[in-house]
Please model this.
Amino acid sequence: MLTEHLERALRGAGIGIFEIAIRKGIDRPELDSLDGLEIASDDRDRVMRELEAFAGKETPELVVEYRASDDGDGRVRWRQARGSLVRDEHGIATHLVGATQDITQLKESQQETRRLQRRIEQAELERAGPAAPRAEEDEARVLERQRQLVTSAEEEARRAVELLKLATGLSGVTVWSIDLAAGDLASANATFINMAESLGYEPGELPADLGSIMELTIFADDRPSLMAALQAYLDGRSERFEAEARVIRKDGSLEWHLARGVAVRDDDGRPTRLTGTSVFVTRIK
Model:
């Protein structure tokens, strides 16, 4: 049920999430069946090449735009996929994970901008007499359209974030990400969605470093085992990170949470970021 709430909210925000096993190469039938990608048949070969190039380190990042599968209303819909590689402790890429965003409105705005730009260029070629005012009007229209495009993109981004916060709040899920670039787990900076609110704090009231957050919010008896589980996974001594711990609310009461995470590693197998979720499980304890 928790997963269903989160998936519905993400779908409402035009966001899809995907995970592709790549240790033995990308399987085309699996790619076609992934709900998070929804690639139109005419673009599948091109997207497949982009994914394979990224997985094979031929390109430094995965950012690909493509047409989505037709949903029956005749409107061409566009999506943008971004992804990163998940590596094991030996630095070998095992999975490609990422998210897709509906960019149909952005693409339609870009097309309209190009159309108006062509009109301006044509008017400049005919800039004799009354053509000049028309060119100025078209140029003003392009600038206004571009301003609307930026505003719309900002609103869509805010809406996606708010829907994600709403989904995590309703489902009792906290999403977190820990920056491990410095190599020190205790002092690493951490970003949380829905943690402060779910524990009774105001947004921005919690500290930014992981050590201080754990001291404030994790029950003292559970901290050593939680840190040990984290370190064992990051060191490659365990296949996955999964741990239960008691969490301290602002009012001092305790509740149980289940945390799961996956590490992003560099080419040498060193973890650079740990991302995961924490789920409220007191009711089933």
User: Anything to note?
Assistant: Residues 17 and 33 are 13 Å apart (CA to CA). Residues 105-168 form one domain.
